[in-house]
Design a protein that fits this description.
By secondary structure, the chain is of the alpha/beta class. It contains eight helices and 26 strands. A five-stranded parallel sheet has the order 5-2-1-9-20, covered by helices on one side. A five-stranded antiparallel sheet has the order 22-23-26-25-24, covered by helices on one side. The chain has a four-stranded parallel sheet with strand order 13-12-11-17. β25 and β26 form a beta hairpin.
Length: 378
Amino acid sequence: MNNGIVIIGSGFAARQLVKNIRKHSAEVPIRLIAADSADEYNKPDLSHVMSLNQRAEAMTRQQAGAFAEQFNLTLHANSWVSSIDPKNKRVKCGEQQWHYDKLVLATGSAALLPPIAGKELMLTLNSQQEYLACETRLRGARRVMILGGGLIGSELAMDFCRAGKEVVLVDNASHLMASLLPPEVSGRLQSRLTQMGVELLFNQLLDAVNQTEPGLCATLNNGRKLYVDAVVSAIGLRPNVGLAQHAGLDVNRGIKVNGQLQTSDPDIYALGDCAEIDGKVLAFLQPIQLCAMTLAKNLLGAKDSLSLPAMLVKVKTPEMPLHLAGETQRHDLTWQITASQQGLIAKGTDAAQQLRAFIVSEEHMKQAFSLVRELHLG
């Protein structure tokens, strides 16, 4: 590997890949190109920055230079890749260009904004850089609107409320985390948020955001106007597929890869939030870790196929923590739910009475590790 491995991206996926490559080879050349500072931080911590009163700069765990030195790689921080030339195995970045033997796209994802008037007034919290850009405004905000009641929106609503802010959450679904939880389960989390003081507005769309003298005016589709100091969009993420698309690679919602994490070009791979495996974008830490382990071996000559076990998803809502796993979004499951003051256990079974999904909360969360072994996959 004279030209070695070139990695585009510097997030969790890219770093896990570097660490795994170095477990197998100390010598293979690695070049990492990052559009940001490439400093390391823990992205899930963004769900707790307000209640912990944490500054953006304090999130940094390791400076980029120290990482590059520790893992013997060539780093290009704050560098935007302008194009990829698969035919000549070349990456262009402004006036510079580098050749590769193997290329990895770990370009991550971007937070979605609704297609409405005033969307430029909305904030997103998908990276340390985004938090840094709006930190002063969020910390000074007294009343905050969260658009989106999914996993991230629910976490942020609780965090902002715990930080002493007035919070209103707006979602077009009929209940919280509608793509992950049945209504009977999300009702418990909704009750907890309501008890804390969060105002929940379901079956509503945001029509517009306007700047007014006292702050922002958010207008809903029913005509109601909400006056707030900040509006945070948490309606989902879009994989960054532009580079791959322009390079002629197969792209759907994410960059399409096979079981070996290869794209439609056998010398280009994709990993993390930008990759689509079997029609799914797996934007959680555990599958990304397992993908990085497999890809590291394949970049060094193996032909391993990815095998993902049933994996737990932790919902970081400290006043009512949740673990879930399996196909919780399926509509054909029969749910058996046991609830008490200590927490909730919900088991989703199919027509053959096989356990396909479960959700546990609070003091019952320790049962998740035994239940995950009972899950039927496929």
